[in-house]
Amino acid sequence: MAINEFLLCKTPQAWLDWACVNQDVLLVDHANCEKKAAATAMNLLYRYVAYPELLDKMSQLAREELLHFQQVVSLMTARGIPYVQLSASRYAAGLREQMRKDQHLALIDTLIIGAFVEARSCERFASLAPLLDAELAKFYRSLLRSEGRHFQDYLTLAKLYAKDDISSRIQEFALIEKRLIEAADLEFRFHSGVPDESVCAVNRASQVRANLVR
């Protein structure tokens, strides 16, 4: 399945505009996302040792995510961007709230959520690349193939291990994901929604003050 068919909405332009004026935060939170993605893969490796296909895919995914983490940190260092602590966005937590408790069903839900996280990341890399400087645009484009493969791996594993058809379950998560992406957020993060009106008001006031100084 293609990513644009899997996701129910594109990243709003308001988020893309927000990202362009918060590129330091974008990179820091991107590093966090890569680290969390590797941790998720490692957790699956430890918890579900009887699933050979999962062990194969998640071991490869963990290595690639850690490499991406290293690459983002190197970019940050070259640009003089400190790696500071950031609070997490509500995106992943909002998806995980819907997870079922049964161990096998929790695995299926975890894999579906992983597919959405990777799909949205890939979609945002592609949407951001034309708006960024040449170095960062090249880097984000270089991630598209691996992130797209990660999306497919998660989705394939979810379908492989499910005992029943999971189309309706995927649709449930798709609707939740869409709401999270289109909802307003006060803080910018890689997976945040659009800026809250109060954030926009502060930005407009700052622009007015800047124009007056000129």
What does this structure look like?
There is one protein chain. The protein is mostly helical and 214 residues long. It has nine helices and two strands; from the N terminus they run ααααααααββα. The protein has a two-stranded parallel ribbon with strand order 1-2. α3 (23-47) packs antiparallel against α4 (52-78) and α6 (103-128) runs antiparallel to α7 (134-161). The longest helix is centred in the last third of the chain and has 28 residues, at 134-161. The chain is globular, with a radius of gyration of 18 Å. The N and C termini lie far apart (51 Å). The model is unreliable at 204-214 (pLDDT under 50).
Layout: helices, strands, pairs:
Blueprint: H1 3-6, H2 13-20, H3 23-47, H4 52-78, H5 91-96, H6 103-128, H7 134-161, H8 167-182, E1 184-185, E2 194-195, H9 197-213
Parallel strand pairs: 1-2
Helix pairs in contact: 3-4, 4-7, 6-7, 6-8
* Oligomer classification: single chain
Provide the succession of SSEs.
Answer: HHHHHHHHEEH
Q: Which residues sit in consecutive blocks of at least 5 with pLDDT less than 50?
A: 204-214
**Structural class designation:** mainly alpha
Beta-strand residue fraction: under 5%
Largest sheet properties: 2 strands, parallel
Termini Cα gap:
51 Å
